[in-house]
Predict the 3D structure of the following.
Amino acid sequence: MTDSRFPAPPPEADEDDPLAFGPVPTASSRHDGWTPHRQRQLIAALAAMGVVSRAAKAVGMSAASAYKLRDRPGAESFRLAWDTALQMARDHAFGYAMDRALNGYTRPRYYRGRQIGTIHSYDHRLMIAALMPPSVPPHRRGGSR
């Protein structure tokens, strides 16, 4: 059994991991605050979800506090991991959208409550949306988020 007063050492970061970063130093060490573990969870959630508010909620924090953490002094590595995670999420969404637009999708066809076949469709609106230039992320607009 380990002594809970002393935190476990952080796992060794993989140097090839694009999401590896040095946690943002915090003034206090609150158990419900931005611990290094929670910061890593946020970056992983950002890479999976691509939406700051959803990722912050998934780790039990608010989006506003996540943006404040990102803007703190000493958060350069965290900011880079944040941007990389969002780009990874965008790349994944783009790949999914293009696959669905180019290869189409199959949906069931029903008549009087019974499935009588399938319909193969292509979503050209999705392809056009995927090819549009991305909007400027809130943290790069210069104004309010």
Notes: The longest strand covers residues 114-121. The chain has a mean pLDDT of 83. Helices lie at 36-49, 52-58, 63-71, 76-103, 124-131. The domain at 36-133 is CATH 1.10.10 (Arc Repressor Mutant, subunit A).
